[in-house]
Structure formats: structure tokens, C-alpha cells
Amino acid sequence: MVALTVEKPHQLALKPESGVEPAAGEVLVRVHRAGICGSDLHIYHGSNPFAVYPRIIGHEFSGEVEAVGAGVTGLAPGDHVVVDPVVSCGRCYACRVGRSNVCANLEVFGVHRDGGFRNRVPVPAANAIKVDPDLPFAIAALAEPFSIAANVLSRTGIDAGDTVLIYGAGTVGLTVLQVAKLHGARCIVADLDEARLERARGFGADVTIDSRTASVPETVRTENEGLGPTIVIDGAGVPALLEEACRVASPAGRIGLLGFSPAPCNISQQEIVKKELTLVGSRLNRRLLPQVIGWLESGKLAPSAMITQTFAADRAAEAFSLIENDPSSTIKVQLSFD
Ligand code: MN
Predict the structure, then answer these.
(1) What one-character DSSP code corresponds to residue 228?
(2) Overall fold of domain 149-281
(3) Which pLDDT tens digit goes with each residue over 192-237?
(4) CA of 56 to the centre of ligand 1 (A)
(5) How far is 301 from 91, CA to CA, in rounded Å?
């Protein structure tokens, strides 16, 4: 048994792990596949303000139940599951109003507590979501990244009448694109990298903008009968884009923010009030994995092309260096713990 641990910033170790038992209310998950996320790299580099070290990282993982702890009903050994990494208290204000992803006592697998880059992980039974055994583990492990997209679009609201401008065609932008297309919306994707834009077209983007050579505001000006996009999603996490988002959005538009930069930006109060814009932050997901799994199981989402490389867990260091040294060759890199 192995566990991929960040000992301290910039130091990755594959450590042997001894047996773990599920406590009461927990199930023991035998991990099969796990996706590497930008936030895993932030913990590796010491730039995640929530991480404490040493930490077993990983929060996008699927596997099968190997054992159940006392009092667990509804899950049995052999069940295939995806883990919702968001552990919330259920008692604070945010939890009581259904916003468990911003729980006052939030704990995220792989960030605040040890995560899923290991063979076996004990998880609260409520966080282990059963999936159809026919759904490949690799696809099931995409449920968490898609829950980020589902969450931001549930915050902005979305339907077939919307025109969505998505900044960034990385993993976040591409998942937002696919979930927006699933709702029937028109989608415009802007990025600086032609290879990423090509992928966005492959996932159904109606318009792509190479923002090195074309102006985003100019390109989207004629959208939505000349009013501009009804939804703007910042999947790039660039603070200055918020200013542009407010400028290009339609009256009654909604802007969804996913970046975590502490840098301030200049937004005009007048722009927000004049057009009655809605700005929403979106963090993690509020128990949306069952919805995403439904889309994956029914084939409404067909994201296998998101998985660009798979490495055996003991070659994790190679996977990390690929993402860092050749990012445009990757969308989602997974680790296999089979
Ligand atoms: Mn992630």
C-alpha cells in the first residue's frame, strides 16, 4: 500500500502505508483512479493557504467499498463509489441553508485532511456516492471536477436561452463548457493557447476566441442581440478579467467567479448597478456529485477525451513534472492505483 505525500512544499514522497480501518459511520474505499488537479500542485508548491504538512493529497478519486464501519447503511463491500471531498459539519449557518461547501468547519480531502492518492481511504459514508458498476473508474473520477462546473452554473443559473462566455479553456473552462452545452446554452470560449481552443471546439464550443490576436469584448459585442453574454464564467482566475466581464455582460447578466487570487481589481459600481449584474463566487460543490454522476451514467456528459494521460501511482513524480513542463499537452492526468 502506498500514499502520495507532500512532506513539505516541493517535496513529494511515495510512502508505504499500513492498514486502515473504517471508523463508525465511515466506509473504507479501495481507490482505483484519481485525477491530479491544479490545487494538488498548489499544495505541492506551498501556495495553498489551507494546507498543512505533511499531507496525502488528492481529492478526485473513485474506487470500491472494501469495508463498512459500524452503523453504515446503504453501502456494502463491492459497491463502486466516487468520493465527494467536501466534508461539512451540518450545523453551522452555511450548512443549514444548504451551502455545505462553505461550511464554517469545512474539511476537504487532500487539503485539510489526508486525501485519495493512496490505495485505501476511510471516508464518511455520506461522502461516498454510489455509481453504476458499468461506469469506468476513470470516468467516475471526473465527477468531482465536473461538480465545480455544476456548482458555478447552479449559482448563476443556466438554461437554453443563455449565451455563456467562458474565460479559459483549461480543465475548469472545459468542464464549464460541457455542462453549459448540456443545458443547451450557446458557448463562447476565450484562451491564449490555440491547442486548448481546439479542444474547446471538440467539446462543443460555438465560438472560440484566441485572446492573443482578437479582442474578447469586440468579438462578443454582437452576441445575444447585441447585448452581450448573459453569463460570464472566469475559469482562468485572472483578477483583471472581472473588470472586463462586468463590461461585456448583458443587462441582467450573471458573472461566476472561481479563482482564488487575493489581488484586488477595479470594478465599476455603476456597471454592476446600471445593468443589475449578479456576481457570484463558487467554491467546491454543494453536494452535486449525484447530479453529475447521473449525467455521466446517462451519457449526457461524454468526457473521456478529458483524460489525456494515465500514470501508475508509483510514477506520480513523472505525472507531476509533465503537468508542470508541458501543460498544454494535458487536460486531466490521472493516477492508477489498480
Ligand atoms: Mn479538483
Answers:
(1) -
(2) Rossmann fold (3.40.50)
(3) 999 999 999 999 999 999 999 999 999 999 999 999 999 999 999 8
(4) 15
(5) 34
